[in-house]
Every structure is written in structure tokens, then in C-alpha cells.
Amino acid sequence: MTSQSERYERLQPLIAPIVSLVLIGIAGLVIHRITENVRVADIHAAASAIPAPRIALAIAFTAMSFAALAILDVLAVRSVAPGAVTDGRAAIAGALGYAISNMLGFGVITGGALRYRIYSAEGLDAADVLRVTTTSYLAFWFGITTLLGLALIIDPDDLGMAARLGVQSEVALGIVLLGLVAAALIWTGRAPRHIGFRGWSIPIPSPAIAAAQVAAGSFDIAVSAAVLYVVLPPEAQPTLSYFLVVYVGALALGTLSHAPGGLGVFEATFIAAIGHAHSAEVIAALVLYRLVYYALPFLIGLVGLAAFEVAQRRHFLTAAANDTERVLRPIVPYAAAAMAFVAGMVLLFSGSLPGEPSRMHYLHRIVGLPLIETSHLIGSIIGVALLILARGLLRRLVNAWLATMALLAAGVVASLAKGIAVEEALFLALMAALLLAFRPAFDRRADFSELRPSPRWLAMVIAGFVAAIWLGLFSYRHVYYANELWWQFALHGNASRFLRASVAVAALLVWIAISSLIHRPPAAFKPDPVDDDVRRLAGASSRSQANVALLGDKKFILAPDKSAFLMYGRLGSSWISMGDPVGDPTAAPDLIWRLRELADQAGGRAVYYAVGSANLPTYLDMGYSVLKVAEVARVDLPTFSLTGKKAHDFRYASRRAEKEGLRFEIIPKAEVSQHVDQLRAVSDAWLEHKSGSEKGFSLGAFSPAYIAEFDCAVMRNDSGIQAFANIWRGADKEEISVDMMRYRPQGPGILMDAMFAQLLLYAKEDGYRWFNLGAAPLSGLMDHPLASTWNKVGNLLYRHAENFYHFEGLKSFKQKFSPVWTPQYVCTRGGFALPAVLFDITALISGGRMGVLVR
Fold first, then answer.
1. Residue 329 CA neighbour count, 13 Å, CB half
2. How far is CA 631 from each of CA 655, 763, 810, 811, 819, rounded to the nearest angstrom?
3. DSSP for 330-376?
4. Of 72, 264, 582, 647, which shows the fewest CB atoms inside 10 Å?
5. Contact residues for 140 (Cβ-Cβ < 8 A; gap 6+)
């Protein structure tokens, strides 16, 4: 049966999309109500009547607003990482970040991701980028607070709130708001200059920078409000103070809704507040405001991002001036996905709007009504299909590219055949030409099941379809509805065509949703069998950890000459190697790159876990971040003995074990299967006592086949085996270690100390050089105020997560043997994906994501 936690884990990804769809639905209903009795033709006429000088002034105010937003990032960088980034680069990051996030919503996430792309090239890590982004957005909210406070104080009589609050109450509220801003500015002047919390250090801007941030944020809000104010019809322009309060309130609600650009929420709030519902002129002004303040900067932002990528790769241009594809390839999937989504929306919107009458008459004489009707239906279906395929283009799937090319070609024909929509056809043809030119960028191969949309993407597609439905209902709201509309096939039966196409698209979306949400089995990870080559190379390795390859839960990448292999597992999007390649060191770089290529082709990310320092140059060449995650303890066996003060506990444990009749033995590999029942009983008792579950990947899990691969050390008495450990041996007696160490909980407390002491003495007598005690997670991280964010986080966990994992206790135990400590690393892409990568590693070792919650 599925547990409640597992059901929640399955449903959790659906919560955010459902909430977004609910908000979009509410906004759509409100917009529908306030646009009653308004026709598309009225809005078009009102927009055409807006004077060109006013539009030019709106564009100028938009430029001033984004200049202020750029300054916010400049000031934030000066506060968080002074001197690390030039003012020019910070201004570009700020302007581009806001241009993208204003359009897409979720500003800290979308704007933060773009900022990371720019700032990381200057050496800032993810935590510093998050600090910059957060500081910039806080200044934005301080600007809103400041302007609202000023409006309440300067002109309370004209705010329309006095009837409810009273003038004195409004002035008092304004004073409180400005007082909060002033208090915050005063507080920035006090020491210390940082806020510290258990190793975290967040810099506080100086009073001068903080004041400049508030001023820039306030100026941005004021001029962005002016963009809308200047395009409003004169009769709908309230007093400046009242307009500012309404604008700030609508902007705040739109931002908090996380809808893209606050779409719908902003408009509904604004129109309801100024009292001009059903006004085509006000709706036209809002549409123009969206185009000037959101769409235009968004398009410029995309061009700017492309220019940044070209600048970052200018050395490619120097080396190969004609290699344009190589320079632009990193941004092609993003641009292609955006264009496909826009193309899909264009086709859906086109299917919701009436065709141009003169073109329709001409077309009717040439091809006839049946082809027009069929083309209209096909065009709408192609539109929703392009919305789905956009995600495949984003993941660089070749299947998505092929399907998109075919649909674009069909869309060109449908656009011409349904109403001679030449503009539509040209746009689709242009996109097809661009995709054709950049065919090599789409190199990931997967079956068509990989094209299923994720819940979030499906929510976005449904939102686009809902918008198209609303547009159609809005366009034909003056058409009298009757059942006969569904069956009317006429040249001017635009409403009928819209209804039929909507039902067809809705049916297609329902089928896609069912297929995506119900029949969405995760791609199974099938381990490779442990063949003779893997067994030979693992046995020939001097590293005892190579024996984990025999666990049977991994895939293997073998060198062409079979001189080395790399083992890996997979969880979610993470392809995780277990240690460095095993075998010939000269083959290691090719194997490391091969895993990166396989993961990239499948839309995943390569992660290299528990690696040493030998191949760090290769990981750095990949542009990967190198994180120290542990230290491995190895005992120098030639110098080890049970004499001296440090070995007192082990001498005592050995003597006590002997008195209690416990004997240390080595069961040869060939005889282990004869004792498997006793070993299983010990293992089951140990697991039950620990309230845990079997691990894997980097640790052995009990199974008769696996335990029989190795010699087994046991502690037994007359009642049978009380403890055991399977032995991993490295070649040439360079290194020896143990994997599973399990014991009966009711046995004496000295059992494991005694067993460890005997194991080390046995290994020394057998001539081994090193005894590997395994890794101490998060040990040896740098504890310094200027250390990296990862070191600070790791130290925080090491000191304060004792209830979850005994970090310090484990290292203290291993320190008793006076080992030599060597670092162990994780190498992967840095940035905001890092927490997910670390969680995937932990989950893979724990046997699944739910296993992370079990010790």
C-alpha cells in the first residue's frame, strides 16, 4: 500500500500548478466581468486614437524606470560584494533580470537565475547572487512603502479613503510608513555591519547606499506609474496622489500573486479602483502599458542576453569567425522554446478571432468552405501541440525538433488556408528557418514519452488555452448563442468555428493531461550485470572502494580497450558516479567526459561523488564546482599497534571480549555461503535496532549473493556469530577496508571496538599498507569568515545536525586510530541546482527520496 508520505510526495509537485491555475481562473473571471459590453474593435479603435507623443513619452518613462532598476543592482552589489563586479556589469544584470522577471513572474527565481548566469562569470557564488537579488527586491518594496507614505501625507483629501479612514488617520498611516523606512535607514548606520546567524553572515548596506536604494526604488515606481498615466484617456486620469496609491496597490497585489507580470490581478484591481469598468479606452491604455513596459523590455532583454552570451564566447569568434552556431548554441534551446510557445499562442489566438472579411471572401472563391473549416481546426490543434513541444525544445530533444519542424510547416499551410494569414505564416516560416539553421543544438535522443509535459508546464499550457478561450468569448460576446451555432458551417460563421476548435483542443488537452499525470511512470534505471571485465578491474584496483561495483546496483561505462570503467547510478535528473574511474588512470578523463555526454543527451546533469584529487583538473575543465564533502580516514598499518595511551580503549575491549568467550575469525569467501543464515539474523537484528533500512550505492546492502563475494570477519561465541564485517581488499595489499559492520544489539558494548582492533591487527599481519576506515562526512571544512558559502553551510550542519546524523561522533571514533585524513569531493554544476544535487546523492544512498528521512 502507498503510505501517506509517499502520496504527499507524488501530489506535492501538483500543488503550485493548481494554485496558479486557480489564481488565473479568478483573474479571468474578474477581467471578463469588467470588460462586458466592450468589443475588440472598440479597443483597437481606442488604442489607435492614443497620440504618438504620449506613446513616445511612455517609452521614455520605461527607459528611466529600467535605469533605476539597474541602479538597484549596482548598489546591491556594492553592498554584498564590493569590488567583485563592475558597475556596468551589475547594471546590465539588473536591467536584464527585471526585464525577464517582470514578464515571467516569480522575480527572485527567474531574475535570480538570470543574474546568476551573469554574476557567476564574475566569480560570485550562488549565495552572493541570492543576496544581491534579495537586496535589490527589498529596495523595490521600500520604494513602494515610501511612495505610499508620501501620497498619504501630501494629499490625503484626494485619495478617496478619507470617507472610511478620515484624513487624520490617513496622514498618521503615512507617517508610520515613512517612519518605518526612516527607522530602517537609521538602523543600517549601527554596528555591526553584518547580521550573523550560526555561521551565516549577511552584509548590511551603509546608510548612504541604503538611502540611495530607497531613492532609486521610489523613482522606479514613480516613473513606471507615469508610463500608464500618460496613456490613460484624460477623463480617466484621477489626481496624481490617488492614481499613485491605486497603482502601488495594484502593483503590490500583482507581484504577490506571482502571476506573470501580475497579469489579470493588476488590471482587475486598477480598473475596479478608478471606477472605469467597461471602458474601451482604459482597457486599450492597459494593453499599451503592457506592451511598452513589459513586452518591449522583455524582447530587448532577450536580445541583451544573446549579446551577453556572444560576448562571453568572443574567443570562439576569434578562433573561428564563421562558427556562429557554436557561439549562439547555448541560448538556442531557450529561444526556440520561447518562440514555439509564442507561435502556439499566436495560432490559438488566431483561431479565437474572426478572419479578415476581404481575405476570407477571396479565399472562399479559390478553395471553398470545407478547406477553410478544416484548416481552422487544424491550426488550433497545431497551436496547442507547439505549446507542448516547447518543453522538448528546451530540453534539446531531437524528437521535439523534428515534430516542431513538421508542425511549423503544417501551420504555415493552415494559416494561409484558413484566412490568408500571411503575417502568421511568415512568422512560422521564419521560426522554422532558424530552427533548421541550428539543428545541431538539438542532440538529445529520447522516446516520445519524454515529451510529456511536467505538471508545471501543463498548467502553463492550460493557462494559455484558457486565455485563448476568453479571447474568443470576448470577441463573440455579442453573438446570440444557440445550439445551432455548433453545426453552422458558413463563410462568416467565425463563432461556430471558434466553438468547434475549442472543443477539439480541450479534448486533446484532457487526453494529454491524463496521459501525463496518471500514466507517468518514471524512467526505470536498470543496473548493468557485473561482468568479467568489471570484476577483473575491481579486483586489480589498489583502492578497496572499487569493490562496491560488485553490489549490482549501478551501470558501467567501460573504456574501449577495457582498461578502466566508471560506475554510476541515477536518481531524477542526476547521473551520479561512485568515485573516480577504476583502472588505467590515463583512461579516466575520457570516461568522466563520457558520463557528462550521456547525462547531457538525456537532459540530466552529471555528478561526480566521492572523488579524490587525481582528476580535479578534468572536472574544472568542465566548468564544474568542486565541493569538499568529507575526509577519508586511513590507518598507516606498519606503524599501528595497540600500545600507548590512545589504544587503551581497544586493548580493554580486546581483553574483555576474550574473557566473555568472543573469538575473532576470518571466514574465507568460499565458505561464507554456509554461514549466510547466521549472518542474515545478525543483520536483521541490527537493522531492527537502528530502525533503519538498507542503504546502497556507496554502501553495501545485505544479500546472499553480495556477501558471498568477500571474505567475512566475524566475532563469535558458543551461541554463534555475534558480529560480522565483509572485507574489501585492494590489489597488491595496498589497502584493505570493511563495508557492512553489523552486530547483535544485545551483545556486549565493547563488541565493535574489539572487532575493529582485531581487524587492524589482522590486516597488519597480512602485510597490508593502509586500512581504510571510510569517510567522515562534512569533516575538515574550512571554518573562516571568508570561506565559501558551502564551507559555512557544511560547518553549520556538522555542528548542529547531530540528531539527524552523528557527524562529530563518527569522526571522533575514527580519530582514535590516529589516521591520515585525505579529502573527498563532489564535483557538479554549481548554482541553484546544488541543493537538489546533494539531496539526490543522499537519496540514492538511502534507497530513495523517502529513505532520506530514515536514519
1. 14
2. 31, 22, 11, 9, 11
3. GGHHHHHHHHHHHHHHHHHHHHHSPPPHHHHHHHHHHH-HHHHHHHH
4. 647
5. 69, 72, 217, 220, 221
**763/768 Cα distance (integer angstroms):** 6
Q: Say how far apart CA 721 and CA 843 lie, in whole Å.
A: 32
Closest CA to 271 of 241, 255, 244, 250: 250
Residue with cell string 567475512: 712
Phi, psi of 311, rounded to the nearest 5 degrees: -65, -35
CB 325 within 8 A of CB 438: yes
Cα 386 from Cα 404, distance rounded (Å):
7
Provide CB contacts within 8 A for 824, sequence distance 6+.
610, 611, 612, 628, 629, 630, 631, 632, 775
Residue 722 CA, chain-centre distance (Å), reads: 47
Quick one: the chain helix, strand, coil %, rounded to 5? 65, 10, 25
Give the C-alpha separation, 683 to 676, whole Å. 10
Return the closest-CA partner of residue 459 out of 23, 99, 110: 23
DSSP states of 333-344: HHHHHHHHHHHH
Angle, CA of 443, 446 and 448, to the nearest 5°: 125
Task: List helix spans (H) across 395-493.
Answer: 398-419, 422-437, 455-475
- State the pTM of this model: 0.53
DSSP string of 195-222, one letter each residue: EEETTEEEEPPPHHHHHHHHHHHHHHHH
Q: Does 101 score more than 80 pLDDT?
A: no
What whole-number distance in Å separates Cα of residue 713 and Cα of residue 727? 7
Question: What kind and span of H or E run contains 552?
Answer: none
Cis before 192? omega within 30: yes
Residues in contact with 163: Cβ distance below 8 Å, sequence separation at least 6, in sequence order: none
Alpha helices (runs of H) in 232-279, residue ranges in sequence order: 240-257, 265-274
pLDDT digits (tens, 9 = 90+) for 262-316: 666 777 778 777 776 667 888 888 888 888 888 888 778 767 766 666 665 555 4
Give phi and psi for 716, each to the nearest 5.
-130, 155
> Residues 797-823: pLDDT tens digits?
544 444 444 555 567 777 878 889 888
**Strands 605-611 vs 574-578: parallel, antiparallel or unpaired:** parallel
**Which residue in 161, 174, 164 sits closest to 239, CA to CA?**
161
Strands (E) across 552-657 are located at 555-558, 564-571, 574-578, 582-583, 605-611, 625-636
